[in-house]
Amino acid sequence: MGETKKIWDFVYQEFGVENPPLDEKALSLYVEDHADKFPDFSAIRFFNLEISYKELNRQANKLANVLVELGVTKDDVVGFHMPNIPQYILGLLAVAKIGCAGSGVSPMLAPTELAYQIGDANISVLISLDALANGSVVAMRNRPACLKAVIVTAATDSLAPSELTLPSIEGVRIESFLALMENASDQFEQRDVHWNDTYLIQYTGGTTGSPKGAMLSVRNIVRCSATQYAFMPLTPGEDSFLTPFPMFHIAGVGGVISGLRYGGTAVLVPDPRDLDYICDQMLADPPQYFGAVPTLFQMLLQNPKFHKIDFSGLKMAVTGAAPLTSGDRRKVEAVIGKDKLCDAFGMTETSPVYIVNPPHRLKPTALGIPVPGADVKIMDVETGTKEMPIGEHGEIVTAGPHVMKGYLNLPEESAKAMREFAGKTWMYTGDVGFMDDEGYVTISDRAKDMLIVGGFKVFSVELEDKLNNLDFVANTAVVGVADEARPGNDIVNLFVELMPANAGDQHNRLTDDIIAYCRENMSPYKVPKKVHFIDAIPLTNIGKLDKKVLRDRLEKGEFV
Questions:
Q1: DSSP state, 368?
Q2: Can you give the residue range of the structural domain that contains 457?
Q3: CB 353 within 8 A of CB 257
Q4: Cα distances (Å, whole numbers) of residue 558 to 475, 507, 550
Q5: Largest CB tally within 10 Å, which of 153, 161, 486, 526?
Q6: Separation between Cα atoms, residue 363 and residue 359, nearest integer Å
Q7: Cα R_g (the chain), whole angstroms
Q8: What pLDDT digit, counting tens, does each position of 417-428 carry?
Q9: Mean pLDDT, to the nearest integer, of 216-223?
Q10: Buried b (16+ CB within 10 A) or exposed e, 492-508
Q11: DSSP state at residue 184
């Protein structure tokens, strides 16, 4: 039986968009194909360095051999602890060749957060930037026993190699990336990979207070690339794409994988705050595709170089992770051209994109329509079992080959998030919205207890769990309010209820202690910007934190 017609199908017909076939093989095999068909075309551009597809495949073979020599098998997990540098892409390809899983590890993680992810994901080999290896990796107080080796690399390894300072970690093999690669064979036979094998374990904040590892299969990742390609066709061996999204984030790694899957040039941005570098890259060789969070678009608009870039060959610019205001949309389009700006929406658990807002058929207030192969429904918030009529609000749920396998080692959390309905497994996103009569979805509320800071999700429960460990804290609540200076971002407000014995303590000193604790134990974007002391955290009639009351009081200006 064929798939039931969807109310958004007519938009596909207008665009000539089709549901792509399930051509699911490892990313490394696509790159091998490109190395045969257009070997000299650049797969990666990094500063002034160009790495061809032939050379990329050769280097990935070397790294695969290195990992195997270190004992990596199909059942292992390799961590990528670095910014957007060529070694990250080599890691993605090497694990694809071996058939094991990779896990993006944020360079911003504090040592305690780093230890948690390494242990939770069971990472046996970590490829780490030299500054991070000598910093947060060494500083882990409780090193997970699963970590057997650390490969240390420098951002300049592919540009101007220099001697590294290797850390010393008892019981862990420490190796130089360049030294290992120099002696490795550039021949490697692709291992067998099944479409349901876990390819990436990407971490996302969770309602349990600790980040959760979303298990993304080969099918999830490759299929998502194909569905995005349906709206954003890239010309293999000709087009380039630039995305400052970090690859340890699902938006960054998803974008790079999609580009490599279809034979484009990945223009790497190691530091998304370096606006001159981004503009210089686009001035030298304007890309056909460009992606950025709204905050970065806002900053680029203030840079004179951005206005000098020739965007005549730009096919599409993509924004996501947070809403782009209508005013900023007009300003961006005035520079890049009309009908080129596309909204993409999704989450780590959906690999990531499952809704797009096509530029030629864009509805500015909506998220967009489901990508081919993705089904989307609006379900009642209370039970999640009743489908809501057109125009009525409810929880956004999605089903299809883009939905993750589940959360690593968390069957109960997986069962809460992924539920059976109408013969399919649906991802219950936690986002509230509605669908119009053309299939366009509009979000009306953020996922429960979630904030967005600089395009990164901040889950309040995770912060609250950690802060409640302080001996002078009785209770905490984290609440976000819109940052008027950075549309689409939140200001992290921390409310603190003190222990009775500390009620008379000086608030300024306690604030300093709280901020110092946060900086030691959290990524920088999670650290509260404002700390408010309150006699008692308000609770609902069933004993839950009543954050609505706190938000209302913030909006009324009761707290400065």
A1: B
A2: 450-555
A3: no
A4: 20, 17, 10
A5: 153
A6: 9
A7: 23
A8: 999 998 999 999
A9: 94
A10: bbbbbbbeeeeeeeeee
A11: S
Give SS3 for 416: helix
Do the Cβ atoms of 116 and 216 come closer than 8 Å? no
pLDDT, tens digit, for every residue of 159-187? Answer: 998 889 999 999 999 999 999 999 999 99
Distance CA 24, CA 18 (A): 17
CA-to-CA dists, residue 189 to 61, 263, 266, 446, angstroms = 8, 21, 25, 46
Cα distances (Å, whole numbers) of residue 503 to 70, 500, 538: 55, 5, 17
| Distances 96 to 80, 104, 537 between C-alpha atoms, Å | 13, 14, 49
Return the closest-CA partner of residue 239 out of 262, 257, 223.
Answer: 262
Residue-wise pLDDT for 322-362, tens only, equals 667 777 889 999 999 999 999 999 999 999 999 999 888 98
| Three state DSSP letters for 537-551 | CCECCCCCECHHHHH
Residue 87: strand pairing partners: none
Q: Is 485 a member of any domain?
A: yes
What is residue 37's three-state secondary structure? helix
CATH assignment at residue 510: 3.30.300.30
The answer to whether 297 and 290 are in contact (CB under 8 A) is no
Identify whether 199 is part of a domain. no
CB–CB of 244/19 below 8 Å? Answer: no
| Residue 524, phi then psi, degrees to nearest 5 | -55, -40
At 396 the three-state DSSP class reads strand
Please tell me the distance from the alpha carbon of residue 276 to that of residue 73, in angstroms, as a whole number: 42
Give Cα separations from 10 to 15, 16, 442, 476 (angstroms).
9, 10, 19, 49
Rounded to an integer, what distance in angstroms lies between the CA atom of residue 197 and that of residue 190?
A: 15
CA–CA separation, 291 and 255 (whole Å): 8
Is 356 part of any domain?
Answer: no
Residue indicated by tokens 């404002």:
530
Q: What is the pLDDT of residues 259-276, one digit of tens each?
A: 999 999 999 999 998 999
Q: Answer yes or no: is 445 within a domain.
A: no
Counted domains in the chain? 1
